[in-house]
Structure formats: C-alpha cells, structure tokens
Design brief:
This protein is α+β, with helices and mostly antiparallel strands and 133 residues long. It has 4 helices and 6 strands; from the N terminus they run ααββαββββα.
C-alpha cells in the first residue's frame, strides 16, 4: 500500500475544506454534512460548541440572512499522521437579518481533517463589531 506524502495529505485536506465551504455557501447542507466526521464539533464567536449543521443554521438565523467568504489565503499544516489542519482567512460579505448589507469583515477558519473528514472547525471573525443589533 502506498502512503500519501505530507503534501498530498495537505492538498486533499485543503480540497475537503474548500468543497465544504462552497457547499455551505450554496446551502447544500446534505453535501456539507457528508464531509463531517462522526465526532464533529465547531465553534463560532459566541456560539459555544456545536455538533451539527442544523445547530449552526439555527444559531446563525438570529444574526444574518447569509454570508459569503472571499478567500485571501489557505494554508495547511500536517499535525500528525492522521490529522491535517487547514487555515483559511479572508473577508465576509452578506446580509444582516434587518436586510442591510455588510462586506469586508475579517475572518479566520481553522479546520482539523482526519481521514478526509472534517472533525473540527473553529471560526474567528469581526462580525460582532459591525452587527446592527
């Protein structure tokens, strides 16, 4: 059996993350869900730890109608033989729940990928600094 190089593992992990983010942005929750590990957990600013995409959707509906990401950079770190960390950063644009638009808000996402599945997502952003509520 041939082992993938660290570069191959990092590229595969990056592809998983970018496909997941595209599915989330397109509201294709079925595809996004298929990319999550059984023990998946995520945390957004002020959210506490969540374990499912429906939890995220329910939490987010009180904050914004939608969010789109403009990616400035994606980098990967091979953490162990089985885990690759993928970091994405850029800016957010979207629409608040009151219908007003926002753009240019900084974000950083950190993902842990194990066996080509997302097992953790941590999100940092400045949305709270610009929220109209």
């Amino acid at each position: 059996m041939t082992q993938n190089s660290p570069q191959d593992c990092a590229q595969q992990a990056q592809d998983v993350v970018l496909t997941f983010l595209k599915a989330m942005e397109g509201r294709d929750l079925e595809t996004a869900q298929s990319m999550l590990g059984a023990d998946f957990q995520m945390e957004f600013p002020g959210s506490g730890i969540m374990h499912s995409l429906p939890q995220l959707v329910d939490w987010a509906k009180e904050r914004y109608q939608f969010v789109e990401k403009t990616m400035e950079d994606v980098s990967c770190t091979v953490k162990s033989e089985s885990v690759v960390c993928v970091y994405c950063h850029g800016t957010l644009a979207g629409r608040w729940i009151d219908g007003s638009a926002f753009e240019g808000i900084r974000f950083i996402d950190r993902f842990e990928i194990c066996n080509n599945l997302i097992v953790r997502q941590d999100v940092w952003n400045d949305l709270a600094l610009y929220a109209p509520f």
